[in-house]
Design brief:
methyltransferase activity, 7-stranded mixed β-sheet, Rossmann fold, 7 strands
């Protein structure tokens, strides 16, 4: 992939290929979250920490049973199911992978919230399946990092939101004060971006993009310390699985996509540990 572009089919292909790895993680933690867990005194295990991230974001978004929530980049639907179960919200999930959408529908059926969820094939840069002024909350849990043009994504969010509607996102960004990256760090960032189909940008730029899109009441919360244990766990796993994967990859037993993902997760934790990358929660409101 080019430095500034993301191909939808290519990104979907990366995560479809990684599904078997994620399914093993789901079996271990007891749910289908793909996201970083937020650890605190009450949430000390990976599964509980991942659910805690959803809880924190839903609380920040102030989701209620009266809300229609649009979950962009919904993946296997765990956070959509969470909002339907925990708050009684109506949730529309959009994703660019049919495999993940089918898993999301199955997830909703298994948790008896199929009647309050609707999973659609759609790109959150287009939202062609979502009507104007029909959504109370646009929700993205590590979704916007998959955008190479967040201004367009927010333009679509403002179109589908009702007046007074909210956005709520968590994601990884470059931290303020990280400074210009050295050549080696630029290479590592490019590796992360291409391996995971993402584009990590500065949190300060994203805040300005929210302002330019017309949002008010913008709040940015640094959650990096809480997810540090999660990125470290992924790095530890990657340091074992990566070398093994390279060996098995030589005989086509493990794909290059999986090996690259292992390296990317290791690089992410290094950047988190060094203060280059942070994990942020952003909320904002559309004026009435």
């Amino acid at each position: 992939m080019a430095d500034d572009a993301l191909d939808t089919d290519e990104v979907a292909g990366i995560y479809d290929e990684l599904l078997e790895t994620y399914k093993k993680q789901w079996d271990h933690q007891g749910h289908r979250s793909l996201h970083l867990g937020y650890y605190d005194d009450d949430h000390t295990e990976p599964g509980a920490a991942a659910m805690n991230t959803m809880r924190i974001l839903s609380n920040a978004a102030d989701i209620t049973e009266d809300d229609t929530v649009l979950n962009i980049g919904c993946g296997a639907g765990e956070d959509s199911v969470w909002n339907a179960r925990a708050h009684g919200a109506t949730v529309i999930g959009v994703n660019i992978s049919e495999q993940q959408l089918e898993l999301a529908r199955e997830n909703a059926r298994n948790h008896d919230v199929a009647e309050r969820t609707d999973f659609r094939y759609d790109d959150f840069h287009d939202l062609s399946t979502v009507e104007d002024d029909s959504i109370d909350v646009v929700w993205g849990l590590e979704a916007l990092s998959h955008s190479h043009d967040r201004a367009v994504a927010l333009e679509q969010a403002t179109r589908v939101l009702k007046p007074g509607g909210r956005v709520a996102f968590t994601d990884i960004f470059l931290r303020p004060g990280a400074g210009p990256l050295a050549a080696e760090d630029k290479q590592k960032l490019a590796q992360i971006n291409d391996a995971l189909g993402i584009r990590i940008g500065p949190i300060t730029d994203f805040e300005e993009t929210l302002e330019s899109a017309g949002f008010d009441e913008i709040a940015i919360r640094n959650m990096t310390d809480g997810i540090r244990k999660s990125t470290k766990r992924r790095q530890q796993f990657s340091k074992v699985a990566g070398p093994v994967g390279k060996v098995l990859g030589a005989v086509d037993a493990v794909s290059s996509t999986k090996v690259a993902a292992f390296e990317a997760h290791s690089n992410i934790h290094e950047f988190v540990d060094r203060g280059v990358i942070g994990y942020y929660l952003a909320t904002a409101t559309l004026p009435v």
